[in-house]
Amino acid sequence: MSIQYKSIKELKNMLNDKDISHTELVQETFLNIKNNSALNSFITLNEEESLKKADNLDNNPSSGSLAGIPIAQKDLFCTKDLKTTCGSNMLSNFIPPYSATVIENLENAGCISVGKTNMDEFAMGSSNETSFYGNVQNPWGENLVPGGSSGGSAAAVAAGIVPAASGTDTGGSIRQPASLCGISGLKPTYGRVSRWGMIAFASSLDQAGPMARTAEDCALLLNEMCSYDEKDTTSIDEVIPDFTENLNSSIQGLKIGLVKEFDLSKLDNDVVHVFEESKKHYESLGAEFIEISLPNITLSVPTYYVVAPAECSSNLSRFDGVKFGKRCDNPKDLEELYIKTRSEGFGDEVKRRILIGSYVLSAGFYDAYYKKAQQVRRLIKNDFDSAFKSVDIIMSPTTRGAAFEAGSKSDDPIQMYLEDLFTIPANLAGLPAMSIPNGMIDNKPIGLQLVGNFLDESRLLQAAHNFQISTDWHLKTPSGNKS
Amino acid sequence: MDKKTVSTIAYLSRLSLNEENEDKITEDLKNIIKFVDQLDGADTNNIEPLANPLEKTAKTRTDNVTAKNRKEVFLERSPKSNEDYFLVPRVVE
Amino acid sequence: MSWETVIGLEIHVQLSTDSKLFSGGSTSFGAEPNTHVDLIDLGLPGVLPVANRGAFHKAIRFGLATNAEINQTSTFDRKNYFYPDLPKGYQITQMALPIVGKGSIKIEVEGQEKIINITRAHLEEDAGKSIHDLFDGETGVDLNRAGTPLLEIVSEPEIANAKEAVAYFKAIRQIVTFLDICDGNMAQGSMRCDVNVSVKKSDAAELGTRAEIKNINSFKFIEKAINFEIDRQIRILEAGDSVIQETRLYDSVKNETRSMRSKEEANDYRYFPCPDLLPVVISDEELIKIKNNLPELPDEKEKRYVKEFDLDSSEAKIIASSKTMANMFEGACAKTDDSKLIANWLVGDISALLNKENIDIDESNLTSENFATLIERISDKTISGKIAKSVLEEIWETGNDVDKIIESKGLVQIQDESLLETIAQTVIDNNPSQVDAFKGGKDKLFGFFVGQVMKETQGKANPQSVNEILKRLLSES
User: Fold this and answer.
1) Is the pLDDT of residue A398 over 80?
2) Which of A12, A74, A187, A444 is catalytic?
3) pTM for the structure as a whole
């Protein structure tokens, strides 16, 4: 029985009905991984350990909500005794002595971490072209990028290798690849999921979340990923709801905001068409559209490109060749140790961002750039706060278009940065946001973004699930419609 | 943003740019800075900077020792160490 | 032309918490290298800091004791620089909003009191230690100290000379030890200081260019380094040159400061708010509780000693100035009544012994119990003051119990009047010529008779009884 393209829910049923054993499921998964090795979606596989866990589950059934579900973990999460590279040469030999809270939570629920997925180096990129471990191929087309930075996770789910993957999202790194690969991905409210063990890119923006075929699967995963964690003082100490509870409730009367300042006329007609179709569909489900104004949202990308590099320039200082990771060969003195190690260990995009970050924080520029950006960030957050007084969710395309060809934007950082135009605002304001497939352009999927109010993931998932039970965009696969 | 500035911030960041990428990166940085200069236009008078989207106060911990000795685990991950110390080229003060 | 010196001190006080500022790593001193290191102290990828509330409480005690503003909301910033003993490549510190704001402290130099204002006191994490001389061509890094909480106390530039600087440092040390927020152990580096020195012409309004001397950890070196630096700067200025703003290192062997310019090259710490740490808020109730539990400070102690124990103010000051001395005094007073005698011994013989060995009273073998017993044995005339000195010396050596020393050495004072009378009579009988001379008006010879009786009794005779008996016998004879 093929397991390719199966959702978590379907696999759970198969396991429950003994249509497949845990061991068979894991064996099949590794077979699929190997058959799809051309995608280059994994950096490290965890086969032996996975088979051991599956065997154990076959012998000692577990009550964990995700028992036996294979999951691909973004290689940004520390996994105890399993190599964690963050897509970088710098960490090509790094074996963490501890696991991220997200990893522990998922594994405690019974998930089997089958491997670590490829990603843009230190999560800096929107096309997975900055990985030290090579590009990831989008399963929808040979030379297409999967998006980034969680490109390996998105490609692995889209190719039906695994039903679920973890991702992280600093400026769109879950939602943009979800859109370009035709899967569902959710960035929770900042603080919903513990950042302990996530290798930090920009600490005030980073948030981990689920990537899966359906919104329903995202809800199942989010139920387990979330926890209040004393080890992360920015994790939120609030009751965590059952995110699956309201999935099937009607969205009659849901107020959806459309952002006046997003000038969709600048997008391709196809993209606009797909978006308009989704609006119509939501209207048919009983939702109501309200135009809202987020006057400062057009400054999101420049704000982000001050805040994120500033934080990253500091966060990445620990990679100095002294305590862990790579060190250059035969440094003649300390200075050379630092400079050579870091220059050899980091790729160009990471260097660019570190340099920008150092620049905007340096004496004489701090007020003009960093402080200014943090002030604009507050303005953007205030805009959202007032918008959410009149709407329940805010809707836009996730991306400006479908997947593009590798190499087509990698020469121009600003073009690449603008990829994240629609996704960045939610990170700046710390709001939950998700992307679900809502159409095809030239046989390439594209996604719809839903942004929710603080801690309101349930409503996002409900809106997404309502869409998915009445459409089939999420069922499309690179090898045809899913049966 | 010129080559001199780039070389200063590169040193602060302990990065060196080689001849091939120096010009390209300088040009990129120039463009990025020009791009973020858009922020100048925003009226931010009396606006408190927002450092973290959670406008909450920190949870703290009580003063207890919880760590165990993991010296071997840590030192074996180090690029260079002996049985007691992480090692770097001699620093002259 | 006269020159005026302006000095400011930044004192780093290691707070005596059990665990580190942002991790559960132990702060205890002297462990094997790298054994008190947590994932967080190592700065492993993915780790996050969690602030230690105990460190805040200790910092607040300092603030309250120096009449400082307490910022009930304080925040953390990152200071970015590379050094092998700084694992994350940044130090977490409080730049923008420190826990303790403006305060002040009183110092005393040669009998003159002066108030030194304190700009701020902020929490930050200590770095590890780099060991430069142990390995061939390599520096070893020990991260045990990395993350230990420091309170950096920054003075206003109001200190006029090296003596005032030392007095200020001592005043800070006194207060932090009294508050029990730091062990004050200079040799272990529990207190270190950076000194900013500048020199200007007396009539100049503007401050001169300053040099910062880093990381001095003894009173003596503070004084020497400042005096060297003042001379150096005056020499430069008198030669018509200008002082360079820079960081300098004090070399105690050569007694000179020298430039650390290499380390300073292009230094730009790029401070910014630490995105991992939200603001820490101290509630009103918490603050009141800390205030109510604040220990008595030296000034208050001194006043109380004069009032309650009837000490002279000079004695009270000496005892109250040291926490361990004050503890010894109060401990002994709790057990026996003669507080003046206790004070006399502390200020006299005990202080002399401490000075001789250059130790603190809690490093000696003397306990308050044993000390109280010693005082009691003097009061109840079991031993004389003179014998008491030898008992004290014995305690100093061995720490043995006072009563056991007295018993085993047979030091009990001879109180038996008839025995003393017999001995005194024998002395009189054996020295007829001295008796005659005494009677002939040589009063000073009385001391001779006392001495002889003491000699016969190996010093154990009660001197008062001996005096009375001799007076009587000599007048009768």
Assistant:
1) yes
2) A74
3) 0.91
